[in-house]
Amino acid sequence: MKKIFLFAALITLVASLSAEARVKVTGRGSKMNFSTDGIPEMYKASILLMQEKCIKCHTMERTVIAVQTGRAPITGQPFNKQAVKAYGIKMLRKPNSEMDKKQIREIVLVLNYFLDENAK
Ligand code: HEC
């Protein structure tokens, strides 16, 4: 009985934590994406770039979940600013990524912006 109570408390906690996540998204599941509502003008082009480049091998859901939860969904590694940079480089180096360093830098900056928004 005690265990069930603890489990319920945990679920409630997790649900309330994820409800607090600030970053705005559109769609669900494989259609999940960052919303461009209220995004500063300077980041809009980078978001479009990310939405074009980062869906070649997987959907945006993977990246959105990483920002929202602070965890990379496949490996469970922390997804913070340092990790964003490392993942940017990792994705850049993947065969056929069709991205260059400048584009990765732009995407890293916009993901840092989303991480900040999410932490508010
Ligand atoms: C060339 C294919 C390819 C492209 C392009 C690509 N990814 Fe990935 N991504 C992968 C693969 C494969 C994985 C599975 C785990 C791994 O190999 O790191 C992955 C995993 C991830 C993960 C989860 C990592 C983890 O450890 O859980 C994130 C976050 C991610 N990608 C973000 C991005 C972002 C942001 C971009 C655009 C800059 C991008 N991906 C572009 C292939 C790609």
Structural class: mainly alpha
Bound molecules: heme C
Helix content: 55-70%
Count of helix runs: 5
DSSP summary, beta strand count: 2
Strand content: under 5%
Strand order in the sheet with the most strands: 1-2
Walk me through what this model shows.
The protein has 120 residues and is mainly alpha-helical. It has one domain: Cytochrome c-like domain (Cytochrome Bc1 Complex, Chain D, domain 2). Helices cover 61% and strands 3% of the residues. The chain is built from 5 helices and 2 strands, in the order αββαααα. It has a two-stranded antiparallel ribbon with strand order 1-2. Strand 1 and strand 2 form a beta hairpin. Helix 4 packs antiparallel against helix 5. The longest helix has 19 residues. The protein is globular, with a radius of gyration of 16 Å. The model has no long low-confidence stretch (mean pLDDT 88). The structure holds heme C (HEC). Heme C binds next to helix 3 and helix 4.
Give a short summary of the structure.
With 120 residues, this protein is mostly helical. The protein has five helices and two strands, in the order H-E-E-H-H-H-H.
What is the secondary structure topology, with strand pairs?
Blueprint: H1 2-20, E1 25-26, E2 33-34, H2 41-53, H3 61-69, H4 81-93, H5 101-119
Antiparallel strand pairs: 1-2
Helix pairs in contact: 2-5, 4-5
The structure holds heme C (HEC).
Descriptors:
two-stranded antiparallel ribbon, binds heme C, Cytochrome Bc1 Complex, Chain D, domain 2, mainly alpha, 2 strands, 120 residues
